[in-house]
Design goal:
The complex is a heterodimer of chains A (255) and B (286).
Chain A: E1 3-12, E2 15-25, E3 30-34, H1 41-48, E4 56-61, E5 64-65, H2 71-77, E6 79-82, H3 94-101, H4 110-114, H5 118-137, H6 153-166, E7 171-175, H7 183-200, E8 203-207, H8 211-217, E9 220-225, E10 228-233, H9 235-240, H10 242-249
Parallel strand pairs in A: 3-8, 3-9, 6-7, 7-8
Antiparallel strand pairs in A: 1-2, 1-4, 4-5, 9-10
Helix pairs in contact in A: 3-6, 5-6
Chain B: H1 2-10, H2 12-32, H3 41-59, H4 63-85, H5 90-110, H6 129-147, H7 150-160, H8 162-167, H9 172-195, H10 208-221, H11 227-242, H12 250-264, H13 268-280
The chains are: A alpha/beta (255), B mainly alpha (286).
């Protein structure tokens, strides 16, 4: 198992955001998490990336316990995320965004920097090549010197993914990555992610409102409602689950 | 070369003032450029100045060792107070560091070993103009090197969006502390050099007035590039000398200029100069 979440709970004062949730993510899969507003999806992402710590339970990644560790440490171990409300260095260009995203891949080399040795230029070249390679994979070739805030929202969402990959992440959590995109853009995004997951061995956790998208691109899906897991399994099985239908349609499931 | 040395000797005191102000502006810049709104520079400068003055007056240590101590003591204090202080962000950090400046200021006034409100006198003037030039050049080079390093990239990333920086793997606490300590070290160096520049130091040199002056340097110059605060310090240190004929209107003049800069120069003097540069040579912009 790549990621293993065991009996995780998180309370914010009287509110129980997550209640005893367990699941596992296998390497190379696209794992979907759906649920109505307030189901605890965002809290779960924050818990896994170490921004929020669990009230109880444990999270491990590649066999090592990560709950309780610092966000930068968890990032260094290979977990990254994108944000529902796009976070980029808006006033910097695409290349600068990609260079800052490669922070974990730079070595601190004080002497090389102090005396401007060739190692400095070599590192710069290596980072540039990596940036170009990743941008190409996300269909952003030729955007290097464009400011991030001049990109369309579909392009900004793809840049977020390519920055997350630039950290060297093995697991990328995509928090509502298609919010605000039109049908064609959603389809293009789906193709890109499936391509990366299939051929590159990257693993994705997809948090979405768009149930159709989740069902069409995930290997397995987990459903949260009011902080509790109500279903988990292949898309077809989850779609047929009466409790899921009830949570989404608000109707009582037929016996 | 001779013309240069002549110039510095002719304008000795103003040159010293300008160079020390440039160092102080750089100290503030180190904090600001990673998103840390710390105004602690005068407090750290005072620690450096009193450390240097006391070591020279009582122990007669060699000047270079004294300067080393003037850097080390504020750096150590920044290291110890940094962790609790830097939990605060934005204007709360500004208030806390302002409190720190006032505490140091009041300790200097009320302690006997610091000479009270009269300060310390009879410090041998050992700071040559070239010491100051060398110190400033070394600081500029060091900060430029850092800006192009892994550390610098992380600091920039934190300043622009610390929540994004965090998930990209930037260790926020450690980098914040490094910037705070570096800022204190530069302020301490400025303090040590200034204590040996003028024979005497008094607590009033390191109070609220200096906080405002340093803020003015950085705001007018612009904080998003290294030479912004230097430009601001140069401008605001030389301006009062140039505006001497206006006498009591000098402060009003400076205030008005600052207001104009805040209203119209979003990226400070440095940003304005760069814009002019680009207008003049459009092909050079990348």
């Amino acid at each position: 198992m790549l990621l293993s979440v065991e009996n995780i709970s998180r309370r914010f004062d009287a509110i129980v955001a997550l209640d005893d949730v367990s699941f596992q993510v296998r390497p190379g899969e696209v794992f979907g998490i759906i649920g109505p507003n307030g189901a605890g999806k965002s809290t779960l992402v924050n818990l896994i990336s170490g921004v929020v710590s669990p009230t109880s339970g444990r999270i491990s990644f590649e066999g090592a316990l990560i709950s309780g560790r610092k966000p930068w440490d968890i990032a260094a171990r290979g977990i990254s995320r994108t944000f529902q409300i796009v976070r980029l260095y808006q006033e910097l260009d695409v290349l600068e965004n990609m260079l800052l995203a490669q922070h974990l891949h730079r070595r601190p080399q004080p002497f090389a920097n102090l005396f401007r040795t060739t190692a400095v230029r070599a590192e710069k070249r290596r980072m540039l090549e990596r940036a170009e390679e990743l941008l190409q994979q996300l269909g952003l070739t030729g955007y290097l010197s464009q400011r991030a805030d001049s990109l369309s929202s579909a392009e900004q969402r793809r840049l977020q993914v390519s920055m997350a990959l630039a950290t060297g992440a093995k697991l990328v959590m995509l928090d509502e990555p298609t919010a605000g995109l039109d049908g064609g853009e959603v389809e293009a995004f789906r193709e890109l992610i499936l391509g990366l997951a299939g051929t590159q061995g990257r693993t994705f956790v997809l948090i979405e409102h768009n149930v159709g998208l989740v069902m069409s691109m995930c290997d397995r899906v987990m459903v949260l409602n009011f902080g509790r897991k109500i279903a988990e399994g292949p898309p077809a099985a989850v779609r047929a689950n009466p409790e899921v239908v009830a949570a989404y349609l608000g109707s009582r499931a037929k016996p | 070369m001779e013309a240069v040395t002549d110039f510095f000797y002719q304008y000795d005191s103003i040159s010293r003032l300008v160079l020390i102000n440039c160092l102080l502006a750089l100290s503030a810049y180190v904090s600001f450029s990673c998103g840390q709104f710390s105004v602690a520079t005068p407090g750290f400068m005072a620690l450096g100045a009193y450390t240097a003055a006391l070591l020279t007056l009582t122990l007669h240590w060699p000047f270079m060792v004294v300067l080393g101590a003037a850097i080390a003591v504020p750096a150590l204090v920044a290291f110890l107070f940094g962790l609790p202080l830097l939990k605060l962000k934005g204007v709360y950090l500004a208030m806390a560091t302002l409190g720190f400046v006032e505490v140091v200021h009041n300790l200097a006034i009320n302690m006997t070993f610091t000479g009270g409100a009269m300060g310390l006198m009879g410090i041998k003037a050992k700071t040559e103009i070239w010491h100051l030039i060398l110190a400033l050049a070394a600081c500029i080079y060091l900060l430029w090197v850092i800006e192009n390093s892994k550390l610098g990239a992380g600091l920039k990333s934190m300043a622009k969006d610390w929540q994004l920086a965090r998930v990209l793997g930037v260790p926020l606490v450690r980098y914040n502390l490094i910037a705070f300590v570096l800022s204190a070290a530069i302020a301490g160096l400025a303090g040590g050099l200034s204590a040996h520049s003028s024979n005497a130091i008094i607590p009033g040199d390191f109070g609220f007035g200096l906080v405002i002056a340093i803020l003015s340097f950085t705001i007018l110059g612009g904080v998003d590039r290294l030479w912004g605060p230097i430009l601001g310090a140069l401008f605001l240190s030389i301006l009062p000398e140039v505006a001497r004929p206006f006498q009591e209107y000098r402060l009003i003049f400076t205030g008005a200029l600052l207001l104009l800069a805040i209203l119209f120069l979003k990226r400070g003097l440095a940003g304005f100069v760069e814009q002019l540069w680009r207008l003049a040579w459009p092909s050079r912009s990348h």
